[in-house]
Write a structure and sequence with these properties.
- The protein has a domain of about 100 residues: Tetratricopeptide repeat domain (Serine Threonine Protein Phosphatase 5, Tetratricopeptide repeat, Alpha Horseshoe), CATH 1.25.40.10.
- The chain has twelve helices and no strands.
- About 30% of the residues are buried.
- About 80% of the residues lie in helices and about 0% in strands.
């Protein structure tokens, strides 16, 4: 009998759980009612945002990418044939890199057109134009990144803007550590520092080249500059 009473006095776990659940539901309903306008507004913005992104990708970005890809074919052919003016400006029927970079900005082909337009302008000694297009080119590829900064260094050096040239040569060297590009751009940075009159800084770079890339052409040339600068008093 005692056991039975004790059992009857114990709280019912299911009832407690049901009460807690009911309390949570009530709170949730109250919260929703209180902030219904804000919640529905945020939900609507999310739906519109997702819908807008899907529509942009399918109706605008996708077709634009395809048109840009088709447009750049002829400019690339002229570039490979070393017909630089036609590659840059177009041939009257097909767009050149400059027009593609502008008209198809934001596409992969438009980005590539910036790089090619920068290279061609550099070769044509149009250095300010080269800087403009190269600055607009972006890539995750380390080798192309090195090429971009190296060309920017060349363009600034030709305009006698040596500080900018040195900065970009160093970026080019740091972009990828290999024996093909890194010593070339470090060597150009050292030459620019030497020309600028920063002999100590130039000496440090020449020494770095001889240490890190001793078997390269730049490494061997740097040995001569190291000996020459160490013999000087500055």
């Amino acid at each position: 009998m005692t056991k039975k009473k004790a059992k009857q006095n114990q709280p019912d776990i299911l009832e407690e759980g049901s009460e807690k659940l009911s309390h949570l539901v009530t709170n949730a309903e109250f919260f929703f009612e209180q902030y219904k306008t804000i919640i529905l507004g945020v939900f609507a913005v999310l739906i519109l945002g997702i819908g807008g992104w899907v529509a942009y990708s399918n109706l605008i970005k996708g077709p634009k990418e395809n048109k840009a890809k088709d447009a750049i074919v002829y400019a690339q052919k002229y570039f490979e044939a070393d017909s630089l003016t036609a590659a840059l400006k177009g041939d009257g029927m097909h767009l050149g890199f400059e027009a593609i970079a502008k008209q198809y900005s934001g596409t992969a082909a438009g980005n590539r057109a910036n790089f090619c337009a920068g290279i061609i302008n550099l070769r044509m000694a149009k250095y300010a134009e080269a800087v403009k297009y190269l600055d607009d080119f972006n890539t995750p590829d380390p080798v192309l990144t090195a090429r971009k900064f190296g060309c920017l260094g060349d363009a600034y050096a030709e305009q006698n803007q040596m500080d900018k040239a040195i900065d970009n040569y160093k970026k080019a060297a740091d972009a990828t550590d290999n024996d093909l590009t890194a010593p070339v751009y470090l060597y150009r940075a050292a030459l620019a520092l030497d020309q600028k009159g920063s002999k100590k800084d130039a000496l440090e770079l020449y020494k770095r080249i001889t240490t890190d890339y001793p078997n390269t052409q730049e490494g061997m040339a740097s040995q001569m500059y190291v000996a020459k600068l160490e013999a000087q008093t500055f």
